[in-house]
Amino acid sequence: MRVLVLHPPLSVGRDFIDYPWATDLGAVQLATLLRLDHEVVLLDAFALPGADVAPRPGGGLRLGLPPALLLDRIAGAGRFDAAVVALTPFHRPPRRDDLLGELCAGLRARLGGVPLLLADCHQGGQHAVASDGARLLASYPEADACVQHEAEVTVPALLAALGAGGALPGGVHAGTEADLDTLPPPAWELVDLAARDRFQRRVVEALGRPEWPFPLDGRTLPALTSRGCPFDCLHCTSNPGRPAGAPKTQRRLSPARVRALLEALARRHGATRVWLLDELVNASPAHLAAVLEAAEALDLPLELPNGLRADLLPVELLPRLKRRFTTLSVSAESGVQRVVDEVVGKRLDLGAVERVAAGCAAAGLPLLVHYIIGLPGETPEEINATLAHAADLEERHGARPAVQFATPLPGSRLARLRPPAPETGDFGPRFQALPSETSALVPAGALARFLWAFERRVRPGGPRKLVLNLTYRCNNHCAFCAVGNRPRLDGDPARQLAALERARREGATLLDLDGGEPTLHPGLFDVIDRARALGYQRIAVTTNGRRCAYPPYARRLAVSGLSTVLVSLHGPDAATHGALVGVEEAFSQTTEGIRQLLAAAPPGVEVGVNATVVRGNVERLGELAALVQALGARRLNLQFLTPFGRATRDQAPDATVAAAQVRAVVERWAGSLQVGIVNLPLCQLPGHEALVAPDLGKRQRHMVFVNDEEVNLAAYLAERRVRRPECAPCPFAACCAGFYELPEEPEAAWPSAAVTT
User: Fold this and answer.
1) Environment class of residue 79 by beta-carbon count within 10 Å: exposed (0-12), middle (13-18) or buried (19+)?
2) Picking from 225-234, 425-434, 516-525, 704-713, which range would have the lowest pLDDT averaged per residue?
3) Per-residue model confidence (pLDDT) at position 753
4) Fewer CB near the last or first residue (10 Å), C or N of the chain?
5) Under the phi-then-psi rule, with left for phi > 0, alpha for psi from -120 to 50, and beta for the rest, what region is 607?
6) Quick one: which of 222, 8, 229 has its CA closest to 119?
7) Residue 171 pLDDT exceeds 60
8) How many CA atoms lie within 13 A of 378 on its CB side?
9) Which of 15-19, 134-138, 586-590, 667-671 is the least confident region?
10) Residue 358: is it exposed, middle or buried by C-beta count within 10 angstroms (0-12/13-18/19+)?
């Protein structure tokens, strides 16, 4: 018989899970078997000239040649006795997929009465979605029959019945598991591998992701050396089709067949990298050893996107894995042992994850650690403990965290406990953006806030910044001054330039010049000139603006090469501002300084306003914002007291009152002012949390004081934060450090060198 095998194009969203570019492995493996008894034509939508990635309505993507062009390929291919269309994990049954439906309708029109079979070519390594076979077949009335689960035994048997003169047995057929050692390696020569390579490059380009933990480069081909997983975790859908109550198992290629598979991929098909899609390649440590030995003999790079079990991974093996893999991946699922044991059922000691993280750091092997939040019975406190576990492994060992929502996929134990995820063509957002109602203790909306806070905590800290205090001298006398009662001295110019050069060598690209009042420092413009020459990309000066009331000075500062001038203005009128800064005439000079700077600033130089929120001005923040807008500035930073210098508990406003005032400013002026909030706990500004700058954002800020002591700003501030009982279940706890514990008396000294970085 002459058999047509088709791997269709896929429709995926940008939040997809799994690996859609690898799904044609199933069709290639099935065609490899069928050609033992039949003449086979394989058309792979990923491996034909013109295979591309194109946007779809609603923000999704089409991967592969469109159905119409794929159908055109059939026109000159002659007559067929049967056609087999591969189902993939991305055809989320039982819904009708529009691309697959278009392909089936076109096949029926072109092939007439030729039997058409839908075959589940899923072999493992990707999420299976259980579905009713009758509903699935009804969604594609063009098809005569469908095979669910593994196809390599059942499809040849059905075609044999057809070839013997009978009809294709219709209806739904349960796939029979194959003996893996009897399967020949997938015959990738059946497709145009050069076209497939080009398609894979387009996938990487079109997705535009900044980094790929598991590269797709050169000739990357997918493979499996085992099927299934013997562990029965709550959320997992592996081993689909298993009878109810039957234990989960894993079937593995023998070491000889592992070698034959990898040799065929590398030597016959020119693979430069192999993605092993095994669900758990080290369920048997001996099997992992066989895979590793075969790859080492071929000097073949591997990737294991589905990861390993940490407790079955000897730490002494990690240096060998470093030479073979780009990134290693393990799953903790939770950072709380109770949840791992009693809820997930993973039977994993979390200490093993810690050991692997430390071992990977020592070996220089990047590690990805997976977590799930929103599991049944998981408390808010346990979610925060999981997120703290993930952040701790990242901060101590560089382990990259991957946190997803618990998603009750049909076929999982989780779906039997909670309503299954809705029928959809793309489950990806359910894992990454659309939490399900899986926990009676934590609503889906709160889950989204937990993940938002965590992503904010672990996002890159941005470019490294040097904060250089040029002088302790100042012509104001602010009641909350960060300098306190230190001697009014300038920093040593030579040492300051040396600090500037050292920080630049260490990677700093941003510079803040602060004080005291930096415009009183005689070397301010020399420092700016030197910073520009060293390659600092952005330079900011924080000033009280009084010297800028004089137009020549304002012009000189505005065109000196800086990027930003932030002027400290603490009240909407002379009385309020003057009382806070201790100088009656300061208000008129500061506001005039803002006007002069705005008039002199060339394009690209920003002029903004900083205001410290204290008891004396908290109820006048709206008037202050109106003044800033009237002056023509477009940026207003509202900063709550920092535990430096003269700031004391008595000066701090009531947090609830202050938050209400800030919220009113944001809601009134957000359209015309860029408002930023500093030092306010996120819980105090519901709905506007994104405007709050957390302490963790200062991890890349290195501060050098006039007396040459140095601190990491985030570490210093963290020592002065406290968490209240209500912080424990808060969904923002991952990125919010809590409340400042301000002293009752002014600080006596600057931070100790003990916190120097």
Assistant:
1) exposed
2) 704-713
3) 29
4) C
5) beta
6) 8
7) yes
8) 34
9) 15-19
10) middle
d(CA 22, CA 6): 15
- Residue 193 to residues 205, 220, 265, 303, 691, Cα–Cα distance (Å): 18, 10, 12, 19, 49
Report the alpha-carbon distance of residue 116 to residue 363 in Å, rounded: 52
**Nearest C-alpha neighbor of 42 from the set 1, 103, 85, 90:** 85
Bridge partners of residue 129, in order along the sequence: none
Q: Report the pLDDT averaged over residues 400-413.
A: 94
3-state secondary structure of 13: coil
CA dist 177 and 174 (Å) reads: 10
Torsion, Cα 41 46 49 54, to 10 degrees, reads: 140
Q: By mean pLDDT, which of 122-136, 186-200, 245-259, 313-327 is the weakest?
A: 122-136
CA angle (55, 56, 57) in 5-degree steps? 130
**712-731 pLDDT tens trace:** 666 666 666 777 888 899 99
Q: What is the pLDDT of residue 427?
A: 84
- Asked if 115 and 163 touch (Cβ cutoff 8 Å), the reply is no
* Structure tokens that stand for 451 in this block: 């993940």
C-alpha–C-alpha distance, residues 227 and 726, integer Å: 47
pLDDT at 614 over 50: yes
Cβ atoms 578, 584 nearer than 8 A: yes
What is the pLDDT at residue 414? Answer: 95
pLDDT score for 462: 65
Residue listed under structure tokens 């903790």: 332
* Complete domains list, the chain, with CATH: 2-179 (3.40.50.2300), 210-240+251-458 (3.80.30.20), 464-755 (3.20.20.70)
In a 3-state reduction of DSSP, which class is residue 705? Answer: coil
Helices (H), 180-317: 193-207, 255-263, 285-298
Q: Residue 747 above 60 pLDDT?
A: no
| Angstrom distance (rounded) from CA 450 to CA 730 | 8
Expressed in angstroms, the distance from the first to the final Cα of the chain is 73
Tokens of 304: 């294991």
Output the average pLDDT for the chain: 91
- Mean per-residue pLDDT for 96-102? 95
Helix (H) or strand (E) holding 563: none
The CA–CA distances, whole Å, from 396 to 244, 390, 404, 700, 718 equal: 43, 10, 22, 16, 17
For residue 341 the two structure tokens come to: 């044991």
Higher pLDDT, 91 or 315: 315
Helix (H) or strand (E) holding 578: helix 574-581
Could you write out the three-class secondary structure of 336-382? CHHHHHHHHCCCCCHHHHHHHHHHHHHHCCCEEEEEEECCCCCCHHH
Note the helical H segments in 419-547.
428-432, 444-458, 493-505, 524-534
Listed residue (702, 723, 720) closest to 712, CA to CA: 702
Least confidently predicted of 365-369, 478-482, 686-690, 753-757: 753-757
Q: Which residues of 392-420 are buried (b: 16+ CB within 10 A; e: fewer)?
A: ebbeebebbbebbbbbbbbbbbbbeebeb
For residues 263-273, average pLDDT? 98
In 3D space, the residue among 458, 413, 478 whose CA is nearest the CA of residue 614 turns out to be 478
Q: Which residue type does 335 have?
A: G
Query: What does the alpha-carbon distance between residue 540 and residue 534 come to, in Å, rounded to a whole number?
Result: 15
Contact 102, 11 (CB under 8 A): no
